[in-house]
Every structure is written in structure tokens, then in C-alpha cells.
Amino acid sequence: MHDAAPPDSPLRRFGSWTLIAAAVVVAAGAFGYVGGWLAPQRLTPDKLVDQFQHNAGTFAGYRRNHAKGVCVAGYFDSNGQAQAYSMAQVFAVGRTPVVGRFALPGSNPYAPDGSVPIRSMALRFTQPNGQQWRTGMNSMPVFPVATPQAFFAQLQAQQPDPATGKPDPAKVAAFFAAHPETAAFRAWAKTAKPSASFATESYSSLNAFVFVDAQGKRQPVRWRMVAEATDASVGAGMAGDANYLAADLTERLARGPLRWHLLVTLANPGDPTDDATKTWPDDRRTIDAGTLVIDAATPQQSGECRDINYDPLVLPEGIAASDDPLLPARSAAYADSYLRRTSEEAHLPGGAAPRPEKQP
Q: d(Cα 54, Cα 65) in Å, to the nearest integer?
């Protein structure tokens, strides 16, 4: 992926574009797009998921994005600090059971763990009243693009050339030139490196949401899960192991539960809530709403997370969607992917492990 060449040579520039392009496409795998924004031809969830398959092939029975992962379980221990802003039961003092999933972005369930710099955390909180909160978060500070239109254009630019098996660097460069909003993500991607553990990563919602209190007052927010663990050298390690993340997680959990703090950032009036490429200023108030405790992990083929669609718009009373156009896009694309993979699983003879199929 990295070729030795003079700093200003065309080969060096191509290598830089390739690195950034790879990071962008796996980030794109964290999200989906649907809607009728592209006229005259309506872009549907089906067309979007087809595009992912054109780009990376089809692995029957697996998620079209975040295909490689591991199920986890535990609970959220709320300290009550978020109750002033949201009536959701999950923020009442006490514990809420959680079923989650760590994963890599991308469609290949056999990808080496070191192949991408991004990790993801998806969670399902089940409240005493039966309502659920589902959230998908990623270990990057911003999303590359702000709109569904730009997202689909990004995927199209990343489609591999049949002659080389790789994206056309000219198309990738043209996409970036036409979308200056990708600058913040590209700057991060230039120095991002694959981590040695799911447990030491922090995960961000990226999209804005809205907390609603008992009086109906609305407060735009973003959240992130910040890890207590910091020693990424502990565990199986990266050398020579394509699946070191699951091994590291198992080793850590054998020594005890893992913990993250749910930090909720409150927007000020005027802060953008419809643009995931932009962060909010560092001086915005942030509250620690409680601690996520993960105490068990199981393979995704047999774990409870296998059959969960981590739709970000499955929200309890007290948490609402913002005006970010990527949220309904993610929701619809996740649903399409879920229907495809569960249908494929149902047709696997004798529970045979699914294998990849390349799209024509």
C-alpha cells in the first residue's frame, strides 16, 4: 500500500491518494444511504447496497458493512446525570442490560484486523418498559461527507476498475476535489493507524441527536464512549495474527469486565446538527452519563448480536433524531442489508459457513 518514491513523484502522490481513499471507503461502510434526493432517478436502499456489493463483492449471510465482528454483552450503569436532559429510562439511576457488537467497517468478514484503521461499537439498550435504544459508533472524529448525495458519489468513485481490481485514482481525486468537506476526515486518515484492541478505543456517534426532557424541552447532543483501558499492548497483539482483535478481547475479559464512560456533549445554539463532517467546539459542556460495562463476548455466528439490526433510529422516548440527513439513510440501508443476509442464512444448507460471491 505504501511505495518508496521521491516526495513529489506521481507514484508518491498516487500512494497518498490510495491510503486516504482506502480509509474513506471503510468509513463509508459505517453508514448507508437511501431516499429520493437524486432526481430524476430515485436512489433506493436496494441500489445503495448493490453498490457496496459491486465495490467489495457479496459474502452471503453476512452484514453488507461491518461484516467482521464479535458479539458482546453487559450493562449500562447510569449515574443519573443525563436525567435533566432526557426522560429516557436508560438514564435513570441503575442498570440497563446491553447487547453489543465490536466490528471492522467493510464487507469482508475475512479481512485482516490490521487492514483498516477504524473500529466500531454497536449497542442495544433494553429499558424496563421494553423500549430500546440502538446506536452505532465509530473510532473516528468526523464522517467524510455530510449529505446522502455525496455519500453515494463517494461509493461510485471507489468502485474498483475491472482491469486493475482497484479504484481509479483519477476518479478518487476528482471526488475529493469536488468535495472539500472531506478535508477534516482526510487529515485524520493520513495518520490513523489500526489499534491493537477494541478495548482501548473510544467510539463516537458522529451524527447529532436530540435529548427531550419530561417538559418537552429539546437539547441537541452528540455522544461518545470513552474507554477506561489505555494499554493497547496487553493481549494477543498484532504480529502475525489476522484475528488479533477477538483474541485480545477474550484475553482481557478473562481478567475482568471492560468499561467505557458515556460522555454526552451538549450543543450550543447555532452548532450544526445536520453535518457529520464538522465537530463542535471543545468548550461545549460535556456530561458523564454513566458507565458501560462489557463482561462477556461470543462469536457473532452464535451470539445474540447476530440477529440484531443496529438501526440508529430505534430510539426510546426521550431521545430523538436530529435533522442530519444521514440518519434516515443509515436506517433504510441497514434494513435492506438485514433482509438480504437473513434470507441468505435461511438458505444455507446444513448451516454451512457462507462464502463470498463476486458481483459481475
A: 13
Point out which residues pair with 123 in neighbouring strands: 100, 135
Residues in the chain: 360
Q: Does residue 66 have an active-site annotation?
A: yes
Q: How many domains are contained in the chain?
A: 1
The answer to the question of residue 2 being in a domain is: no
User: Does residue 203 form part of some domain?
Assistant: yes
Catalytic position from the list 2, 54, 66, 179: 66
Could you read off the pLDDT of 215-271 as tens digits, one per residue? 999 999 999 999 999 986 644 456 678 999 999 999 999 999 999 999 999 999 999
Q: Is residue 3 part of a domain?
A: no
| DSSP label at residue 342 | H
Q: Which amino acid is at 311?
A: D
Long-range contacts of 337-344 (CB under 8 A, 24+ apart): 337/32, 337/49, 337/63, 337/64, 337/65, 338/63, 338/309, 340/49, 340/64, 341/60, 341/61, 341/62, 341/63, 341/64, 342/307, 344/60, 344/61
CATH code where residue 326 lies = 2.40.180.10
pTM of the model: 0.85
